[in-house]
Design brief:
The chain is an alpha+beta fold and about 525 residues long. The chain has 2 domains: about 45-305, Alkaline Phosphatase, subunit A (3-Layer(aba) Sandwich); about 325-510, Sandwich (Jelly Rolls). Helices cover about 20% and strands about 25% of the residues. The longest helix is centred in the middle third of the chain and has 22 residues, at about 215-235. The chain is globular and about 75 Å long. It starts with 14 loop residues before the first helix and ends with a strand.
């Protein structure tokens, strides 16, 4: 088909299209309307993103899902936890906005399903972004939760789209139609990038709960649709010369009894599963986040994001080089914490090589896990107490450092919370400036203090920054002039409190120039 075909959209919202489609994971249904004609693709690098609404990843193993299981074995599978209020509810509007835009809700602005405050003009979805920077690509979107189209979350920028109304007509038939039309396009046309959405898993979760047979059956059906799409890709006559990446993800989890929107760990569960060129087989990274979908799409298409886009995500194959990531073998199960399952390994007082924690002024007693600076995972720390904004630590990845006087004081203690985290010494000889970069989540209360200090050549630490108000998971940079004669610098993070809040440090990087 000629590349000169104008960019256009195809809208289908009739129930007849859905009822004409066969239902079931291996169905070979044909929609009641012809698939739209896409412009001929221009890239050998191709990407299919499959969104499965409300799919709790820890239920996949209990469902009959051979295609998802195969992708896990042959691709990279990263699980993570979402935010909660007040950043955003664990709902579809914020979740799919995060997937599509590659930024967190404090940027894209969607906090719940009204989409009030959305800022897709500044943070468009990845299909809209591709239409700006690579308009020659052939793109397609299919959804049956209509707000993903009407609100501009997913479909803008697509050359063609299929939009059905699952809320009005039911998702079972419309999911089947989406599978059939996408399968046809993959077999008979030459698309470059596709985003397809299936909604019945979320409905089954609401109606029957994530622990139900109906929920597992819905996963089985959608797994079958995924299998049909994968088979259609491999059946393409030009498949041998193409480089296909397939990404599967979700927007939020579900409680065992059904429902989402709150801060329970089951509602916050998400995953990104990807298979394709340069993506490791069988990898289970602990530093993947939901914002990584869009960044992975760009990487697989050979597109380098402009820093002005403000993406929060990174490609799924790109690992964090944070100094705390080496601590996984040291992570332990709960000691004094009671609300964290015994099998969750997620904290340690062991500092990375070259780092240290100074507790000489620290009080005695308290909750063992949080006595002085600790190193923890989101799965562990955010379980310690819900709804105190620990869920907002979204820009930390993997293991981070945390000083938490609030949780420490939940067990009898005496004396103050006073702890200092000390970095290694970094060479700065012959340099004019040194920059400390990090990510911080900080909550201020009362007389607590949070200070960054610099020590040149091992001398007396000097305060170079003090936090006096909340910083909700933000990257920070601090650039200092290097004093004459300084050969090295180390930094100290000194936190004091008395049953106040907490300070999180992650992503520490020091560069001199």
């Amino acid at each position: 088909m000629s590349r000169s075909l104008s960019r256009r959209s195809v809208l289908a919202t009739t129930a007849a299209a859905a009822t004409a489609a066969a239902v079931g994971p291996l169905a070979t249904s044909t929609a009641a309307h012809a698939a739209p004609a896409l412009p001929d693709g221009t890239s050998k690098d191709k990407v299919l993103v499959v969104g499965m609404d409300g799919l709790r990843h820890d239920v996949i193993a209990a469902a009959k899902a051979p295609y998802l299981t195969s992708m896990m074995a042959n691709g990279t599978y990263g699980t993570s936890l979402l935010y909660a209020d007040p950043m955003a509810a664990t709902s579809s509007g914020p979740g799919w906005s995060t997937v599509s835009t590659g930024v967190w809700p404090d940027k894209h602005g969607v906090k719940e399903n009204s989409f009030a405050g959305k800022d897709y003009a500044k943070y468009p979805g990845f299909l809209a972004r591709l239409a700006q920077v690579r308009p020659q690509l052939s793109t397609y979107a299919a959804v049956d939760w209509k707000p993903l189209d009407t609100q501009g979350t997913v479909t803008p920028g697509a050359d063609a789209k299929l939009v059905l109304d699952g809320d009005r007509d039911g998702y079972t038939g419309h999911d089947a139609t989406i599978a059939a039309e996408t399968e046809s396009i993959l077999r008979n046309q030459n698309p470059d990038v596709l985003f397809v959405y299936f909604g019945q898993t979320d409905i089954a979760g609401h109606n029957s709960g994530a622990g139900s047979a109906a929920y597992r059956d819905a996963i089985h059906v959608q797994d079958g649709y995924l299998g049909r799409l994968l088979t259609a890709i491999r059946a393409r006559p030009s498949y041998a010369t193409e480089r296909w990446t397939v990404i599967v993800t979700t927007d939020h989890g579900h409680t065992d009894s059904g429902g989402h929107g709150g801060s329970a760990i089951e509602e916050r569960r998400t995953f990104v599963l990807a298979q394709g060129p340069g993506i490791a087989a069988g990898a289970r990274p602990a530093d993947t986040r939901l914002v990584d979908v869009a960044a992975t799409v760009f990487r697989q298409l050979g597109i380098t994001p402009d820093p002005a886009w403000g993406l929060d995500g990174k490609p799924i194959q790109e690992r964090s080089t944070d100094p705390f990531e080496i601590l996984y073998p040291a992570l332990a199960a709960r000691a004094d914490e009671t609300g964290i399952p015994a099998g969750v390994l997620g904290w340690t007082h062991t500092a990375p090589s070259g780092w240290s924690v100074v507790n000489s002024a620290m009080g005695t007693g308290g909750v063992a896990e949080w006595r002085g600076w600790s190193f923890a995972t989101d799965e562990f720390w955010s379980r310690s107490q819900r709804d105190q904004s620990r869920e907002l630590n979204v820009r930390s990845r993997g293991i981070f450092a945390v000083a938490d006087s609030d949780e420490w004081d939940d067990k009898a203690s005496s004396g103050p919370y006073d702890s200092t985290l000390v970095t290694p010494a970094y060479a700065v000889g012959g340099k004019s400036t040194v920059t400390l970069a990090l990510t911080t989540l900080y909550r201020q209360e009362g007389a607590q203090s949070a200070r960054v200090l610099a020590s040149w050549n091992g001398g007396t630490p000097v305060e170079v920054k003090r936090y006096t108000s909340d910083v909700i998971s933000r990257p920070q940079t601090l650039t200092l002039d290097v004093p004459s004669g300084a050969a090295n610098v180390s930094f100290r993070f000194h936190y004091t409190g008395s049953n106040n809040w907490y300070w999180v440090i992650d992503g520490v990087k020091v560069t001199a120039s």
